[in-house]
Amino acid sequence: MRAAIFKYAIVCFEALLLVPPPRFRATYGNEMVWLFRCRLERAARRSLAGLLFCATAGLVDLAMTGVLQRFSERRASHVPRLPAPTGDPMMNRIALNMKLTVRNMMRTPGFTVTVLTTLALGTGATIAMFAVTDATLLRPLPYPNSHRLVAVQNVDESMRRDAFGLPYLRDLRSRIHSLDRIAGYSPSWSQTVTGAGEPRNVTSAYITDDLFELLGVTAVTGRTFTSEEYASRTNRVTVVSRAFWNRHFGRDVSLNGQVIRLGDQPHSIVGIIEQDFRLPQTQSAVSSDVSNAELWLPFSLNRYADLRSIPVMNIVGRLAPDATAAAMNRELQVVAASLAADYPETSRGRTLASEALQDLLTRPIERTVLVLFGAVSFLLLIACGNVANLLLARGNARQFELAVRRSLGATRRVIIEQLFVETFVVAAAGCALGLLIAGWAVASIPSLGLKGLPPTVDVRIDWRAGAFTAIVAAVVTGLFGLIPALKLSRNEQGNLRNGARTTEFGGQRLRDMLIISEVALTLTLLVGAGLLARSFWKLSHVNPGFHPENVLAIPISLSGTMYGTDELRESFYREAIARLQELPGARTVAAVNRAPLSGGNVLVPVEIEGKAGQVTVDRRVATPDYFATAGIPLVEGRDFTSEDQPQTEPSAILNRTAALQFWPDGHAVGRRLRLIQRNGPGPWVRVVGITGDIRHHGLDRAIQPEVYVPYLQAAVESMVVVVRTGVPPETITGAARNAIWSLDRNLPVDQTQPLDQFVNASLEEPRIRMAFLNGFAAFALLLAGVGLYGVVSYSISRRRREIGIRVALGATPAQIVQHIVWRGLLLATIGSAAGLAASALASKALAGLLFGVTPTDTPTLIGVTVLVLFICGIASFVPARRVTGFEPSDVLKGD
Amino acid sequence: VSETIVDKFLPLTTLAFEVMLAVAEGQLHGYEIMTAVEQRTDGVLSPNPGTLYRLIDRLTTQGLLEAVEAAVGRYQETRRFYRLSKLGTRVIEAEARRLESQVKAARARRVLKRI
Fold first, then answer.
1. What is the pTM of this model?
2. CB–CB of B49 and A35 under 8 A?
3. Which of A284, A497, A582, A674 is deepest in the core (most CB within 10 A)?
4. What are the residues facing A557 on neighbouring strands?
């Protein structure tokens, strides 16, 4: 982060050195860069904020002193010089016009700064957002031939897309001919690495042969796996990432048969691969356990490697050179039918589907990115509207100059050319500054910690962003340079005669139109922002169904052979719960296999006694007291107790949704159901209680039917121990870790966190989305307000004579102020009406991102309209107040 | 050089005075000037590159400072050093006297307590 800021600051500084005059630059340029670098280095050693301040201060200072230096040198030697007219006359004229423009801009610094700031912020936001859009949606994935990569999915009866069991790989390879390479991977398996300091959980991925080749990965040191290693069940080898290596062994240590322990198994490291290789992953932003794999293992070492029924393997393939996507899909249907015939127990009723890897990865965030990009384009349009207004206003003030030029023989074309070049210079300068702003913005993206971005994304400002900037500059010039140019150049001979005393204010209607469009765009943006803000408010006030405050969650995984039997694991958890119970501040302690909102889930089919068919439910495993600890209300019946032993009658607790779905008569307690397990239906289970519903999958997701079974009747390896505390849970995190370590020093507990962190994490993506859109909307409102202010105060200055006459004829200042404010509000009202109509169309794009709010939410629409009218009222009132100081005699004296 | 020419430069701006003060004892390059000014003023003045070099440029053009180039360091890089010119020495002296008389007046009227 600091290094990026540092680099950008230096680049900006070097670019800004173009501001001071050439002589100054040649004499002091190098020294100044060197001094700036020294200051930055010093500031960087203190704090990030200090560095940012130092960089900004240095850049602003350079820009300002540069301009001042130019002024003072011009004053010192004011000799007008015109280039000898050589070469192409049109190019000469354009060059001359550019020079004129720069000189004009220098002469009116206030105007220049306003225009450039508006344009720079508008284009800066747009370019930065373009870079994000480009990186997420447009640019090909960082794999060779990425446009021919497809993901193959195993679709079940309910059209859910699933993965495959490893044994399917061979079948798919031999039957699908339209893919010339097929490989499988499983991207996120938590592994415990021990032996190097505190035990750590590291994300690992299991891969089959061909995967590295397919995705273009080579080892930078050592090698990748051999085909024997891919097939072997006993040869424990691993490939690690450069980052993992540097952290565990150090940057300077070379690969020499090092061994790490994963769980309790030694694995020898055979290779190190590129730092930035990432597997395609499709998890949503909410689940907290998405992280990039740092260890790669042959799939044959996976504990589910020989099970066809456990879907652990994602399939990716490359389309053969002569195959088409349509042909592949036809072939997949045939293959699905043959698989269903050969493996009825796992493949019956299933089909195969394919999706381009790119689409699969970008779909979850496509809408958010496009909405934000749309919002930012609105912002740019509003900024352009303001600039066009300013140019028009200034152009009007220059009518006399233009009239003189015309009467001296300038053709209309020449004048259009001059105005056009002026706009272009302004737009180019604005875009160049915008590019710098975008650079800063993009450099700060990693520090925002945006989990919403897929892991394969690398946002940067490159030549594509540069090309986009050029297009933006051209569009800005075309749209907003052409209008004033055509408008102003039309002026016929009349003006010279009227001189500066004209009372007609040409272009007023055009400026009004611009303001109306700006208000309309602003209102549209604000409606979007308001809807997202209300969604977020509603989302954060959703009752999750449990009480996450004052609960500490400690995920513990007992994989490996140290805890090889259910008895060992059971006694571990019993002892852990007992020790945590003794901690000062702990109230109740229990365990569950998946904590709410943590992103994990286990689906199982169940059969209901007396009913045909199966229903899929979420299965959870809980210990006694779990519901009290997590704050889930028990609605009916009893909790699990220590009486629920393996030899007693199996019991289960349903959530309310499941109870009502299975037995709509409302009498679920005492009825029986059974869970379908890997080897057929399990024993009948009696329902002993009903709990309240919880939002397990996300605050905005529907509640799913859930079945809880007691831990003693369904031992699992991984549990989340939850501790309800009487004190803030952060305060006992350390003590809780030590309690676990007193049982087993090698258990990783680095993911211990308060349960409400899960709730916060699940709000992260909507929060970021809302914050961005609201920021854009607030900025748009500011721009529209400033624009209206400018238009009103300009029209007042143009109408001084008219107002003077009115006052002389007896109008009171209050009447005039009222008249002006009404006019401003009239524009705002027309704009708002247009904006409401536009937002009805635009907010359809938001539909998928809203929660508990319809796109035509009346309170939002009313609130936003009132806000816009209020701001517009103020923006016209403030300049209008100036007319109270008018003395008609002063104004009319000139005549 | 008559007194009137020296007086033409007075009063000096705060930063100009500090910069000239910094190079009064010997030649310094840009970074040394900046750190010297910062140390003298306890960090109250910390000129950015733009401001500093614009000032140096002005002082050099006015003839108060002189730039000398010298090769320094292990790699014998050419670096520009600044020092007071004869005129500069007299200007800063005059400015110091002017300030001194102001301080004396402040003491006499008990605006500034004697230490």
1. 0.64
2. yes
3. A674
4. A718
Distance CA A554, CA A576 (A): 11
- Give the end-to-end CA distance of chain A in Å, rounded to a whole number: 64
CA distance linking residue A546 with residue A632, whole number of Å: 5
Q: How far is CA A121 from CA A420, A624, A771, in A?
A: 22, 58, 17
In sequence order, what are the residues at sequence separation of 6 or more whose Cβ sits closer than 8 angstroms to the Cβ of residue A266? Answer: A236, A259, A260
How much is the pLDDT for A50?
Answer: 85
Reduce the DSSP state of residue A265 to 3 states and report it: strand
CB nearest A38 (choices: B31, B53, B56): B31
- Contact list, A27 vs chain B (CB under 8 Å): 57
Structure tokens at A229: 């290693």
Tell me which residue in A27, A34, A66 faces B50 most closely, judged by beta carbons.
A66
Sign of CA dihedral A50, A52, A53, A58: positive
**Structure tokens given for A633:** 């209300």
Cβ(B29)–Cβ(B78) under 8 Å?
no
ipTM of the complex: 0.89
In whole angstroms, what is the distance from residue A752 CA to residue A807 CA? 75
pLDDT at position A451:
55
A415: CB partners within 8 A, 6+ apart: A402, A405, A406, A485, A488, A489
φ, ψ (nearest 5 deg) of residue A292: -80, 140
Nearest residue in A to B69, CA atom: A27
State the pLDDT at residue A505.
Answer: 46
Is A242 within 8 Å of A236 (Cβ atoms)?
no
Q: What does the pLDDT look like over A861-882, one tens digit per residue?
A: 999 899 989 988 888 888 888 7
Alpha helices for A639-722 (secondary structure H): 656-662
Pairwise pLDDT comparison (A631 vs A886), residue with the higher score: A631
The H or E element containing residue A556 is strand A551-557
Nearest to residue A531, comparing CAs of A777, A869, A172? A777
Q: How far apart are CA A325 and CA A876, in angstroms?
A: 59
Are A373 and A133 in contact by the 8 Å Cβ rule? The answer is yes
A28, B53: Cβ pair inside 8 Å? yes
Q: In the block, which residue shows the tokens 């000398």?
A: B68
Cβ pair A404, A91 in contact under 8 A: no
Contact A203, A269 (CB under 8 A): no
Q: Of chain B residues 23-42, which have a CB less than 8 A from chain A?
A: 29-31, 34
Question: Could you read off the pLDDT of B75-93 as tens digits, one per residue?
Answer: 777 788 999 999 999 999 9
**Using H for helix, E for strand and C for coil, what is the string for A202-257?**
EEEEEECCCHHHHCCCCEEEECCCCHHHHHCCCCCEEEEEHHHHHHHCCCCCCCCC
> Dihedral sign, CA of A409, A413, A417, A419?
positive
User: A57 to chain B: which residues are within 8 Å by CB?
Assistant: 48
- Of chain B residues 82-111, which have a CB less than 8 A from chain A? none
**What are the tens digits of pLDDT across the range A120-158?**
888 888 888 888 888 878 877 778 888 888 888 887 766
Amino acid at A537: W
**Which chain A residues have a beta carbon less than 8 Å from that of B45?**
none
Which residues of A fall within a CB distance of 8 Å from B56?
28
Contact in structure between A816 and A883 (CB atoms under 8 Å): yes
B30:A58 CB<8 A: no
Closest CB to A65 among B31, B34, B51: B51
Q: Which helix (H) or strand (E) holds A689?
A: strand A685-691
> What residues of chain A lie within 8 A of the CB of B53, using their CB?
24, 28, 31-32, 35, 65
Q: Which residues from chain A sit within 8 angstroms of residue B28, using beta carbons? A: none
Query: What's the pLDDT band for A286 if we cut at 50, 70, 90?
Result: very low
Q: Are strands A685-691 and A634-637 parallel, antiparallel or unpaired?
A: antiparallel
Hey, are the CB atoms on B50 and A62 less than 8 Å from each other?
yes
